[in-house]
Specification:
Keywords: Collagen, Repeat, Signal. It comes from Culex pipiens (House mosquito). This is Collagen alpha-1(XV) chain. The chain is mainly beta. The protein folds into 2 domains: about 1-35, no CATH class; about 35-260, Jelly Rolls. The chain has 6 helices and 18 strands. The chain has helices at about 1-10, 20-25, 30-35, 205, 225-230, 250-260; strands at about 35-40, 50-55, 60-65, 70-75, 80-85, 85-95, 100-105, 115-120, 125-135, 145-150, 160-165, 170-175, 175-180, 190, 195-200, 215-220, 235-240, 245-250. The strands form 4 sheets. Strands 1, 2, 3, 6, 11, 12, 13 and 16 form an 8-stranded antiparallel β-sheet that branches. Strand 8 (about 115-120) and strand 9 form a beta hairpin. It is globular, with a radius of gyration of 19 Å. Residues about 1-25, about 235-270 and about 275-284 have low confidence and may be disordered.
């Protein structure tokens, strides 16, 4: 299958992709299937009110987000128009028990979350629900949860991965596959409204649910099988903090994710985030 994907990608450089070839990807463009989308590009540099530079895991830089942060961007500057099968990877450290939206793509009226991750406490327990919201704003009047999973309450770093297939959602907690649920996606292909907004650590001025904490990594991948590559690492240690397991990866693995950088240790160091995705005018 991977060979077929590669050959199709190479052939698309010189000729249009046919409708039958697009059928392999559920209607997504082949370039979107191979692309990765860094949602943290919505954060402006230098940062605005409520956003600070802090140390991430193993000293790598990250974004500290306070309750007054207002991070948003037109979704089209970062995300594709359509999604069928994809993977979302988020590495975050919650700062409060209240949780909140790690990210959301919201309709132009700011009333419906079309796609988002919502972290919220479960009453009278030491657990959280992490919910993937997947809503057709054209037909639904309220947010629709596609899949929800329980994780232990923690203020430590956690890596949350949602692998979204046509009829399944696979959840990984700190790169450990913990649960698979059967789902019925309505619609099968999610198409964002052209005027939708991407929010980070909130769901807009009406729904709010602001997330307070630290954001290290937040990407969406058009290829759901990226999980195999991303999580094919050897854990060198497992520490217990706040009654939650935290997987610590080898330094070489972090360098693979964030680039080989040397932190000066100054508070003003900028987090290393991916450059904007190039305009798809070719394969060069």
């Amino acid at each position: 299958m991977l060979l077929v994907l590669l050959l199709l990608w190479l052939s698309s450089c010189s000729q249009p992709v046919t409708s039958s070839e697009l059928g392999l990807f559920g209607g997504q463009g082949i370039r979107d299937v191979f692309a990765e989308f860094d949602l943290l590009l919505a954060i402006k540099i230098p940062p605005e009110d409520g956003i600070t530079f802090v140390d991430g895991s193993d000293g790598f830089p990250a974004f500290g987000v306070a309750s007054n942060a207002d991070i948003k961007s037109p979704y089209r500057t970062i995300l594709p128009e359509k999604l069928t099968e994809f993977t979302i990877i988020a590495t975050v450290r919650p700062g409060t028990r209240s949780g909140g939206y790690i990210f959301s793509v919201v309709n132009p009226l700011d009333t419906i979350v079309q796609l988002g991750l919502l972290l919220e406490p479960i009453a009278a327990t030491d657990q959280w629900n992490i919910t993937l919201i997947y809503t057709d704003a054209a037909t639904q009047r309220s947010n629709q949860p596609l899949a929800s999973f329980q994780i232990p309450y923690t203020k430590s770093w956690i890596k949350l991965i949602f692998k979204v297939l046509n009829n399944q959602v696979v959840f990984y907690n700190n790169c450990v596959e913990t649960e698979t649920v059967t789902v019925k996606k309505e619609p099968r292909m999610l198409i964002f409204d052209a005027a939708s907004t991407l929010y980070i650590a909130q769901a807009g001025s009406i729904m709010r649910r602001n997330f307070e904490g630290t954001l290290l990594f937040l990407k969406l991948y058009g290829n759901p099988e990226i999980v195999k590559t991303h999580c094919n690492r050897t854990a060198t240690d497992v520490m217990q903090e706040d009654d939650a397991s935290v997987v610590i990866y080898e330094e070489d693995d972090e360098n693979e994710l964030f680039g080989n950088i040397e932190s000066s240790g100054d508070d003003g160091d900028f987090p290393m985030i991916s450059p904007p995705q190039p305009e798809y005018g070719g394969c060069g």
